[in-house]
Amino acid sequence: MLTRVLLSLALATGLLPAPARACETALILAIDVSNSIDSGEYRIQAEGMADALLDPLVMEALVRGRVALMVVQWSGVGDQVVSVPWRRMTSDADVGAVAAEARAMRRAITLSNTAVGDLVRFARAQFADVPDCARRVIDISGDGDDNAGTRPEAERLFAERQGITINALAIESLGLSITNYYRQRVITRDGFVMTSRGHSTYAETLKEKIRREVAQVMF
User: Fold this and answer.
1) Which class would CATH give 22-215?
2) 208 to each of 58, 160, 169, how far by Cα in Å?
3) Number of CB atoms found within 10 A of residue 32's CB
4) Domain residue ranges in the chain
5) Element (H, E) at 135
6) Label partner for 74 (CA 20 to 30 A): which of 121, 131, 137, 151?
7) pLDDT at residue 213 in the model
8) Distance (Å, rounded) from C-alpha 203 to C-alpha 207?
């Protein structure tokens, strides 16, 4: 008891440094680079991600939560590439650096299918490197359903058993077919889908989505 009292006094008076805050969320931003994405649409995704990260509310939430960020490009079976490895967001400068990398990153994969289940399997494995983060979230952006690889429903079940959340940003050209696909077959029970009406609204939708994921702001 006396030891705890002395330790509390030492922390309060600055004699000992306060313990570092734990990471609140590990967030994987996964962008679709399959055959259905042309070069212009890829650039919109990369630029949109950078712009979303630089939004003042997003930046504040990332830093406040000491969020760990990773960026993955994905498409077909075995086609998942880590473009930005895990980075801890401890300052505005950290967020700015990741945004700059996202804006400058080159397309990693071309002429490949869409394997959403394989992406989820790959992403699940990446969280082993950030065991101190309280929440683990896979944020998938895509404009098509799966046409290759393992079934996403099976990987969703594994994710749920591990306590991993899967959210999605559906890029729609007509109707809500991709939104419904992600809602019914990909996201976890605690996840959500947001819809971008084509690539032109991608940046704004992603901005709102990241706010919701890391700041718990409900839109």
Assistant:
1) alpha beta
2) 8, 24, 10
3) 24
4) 22-215
5) strand 135-142
6) 131
7) 87
8) 6
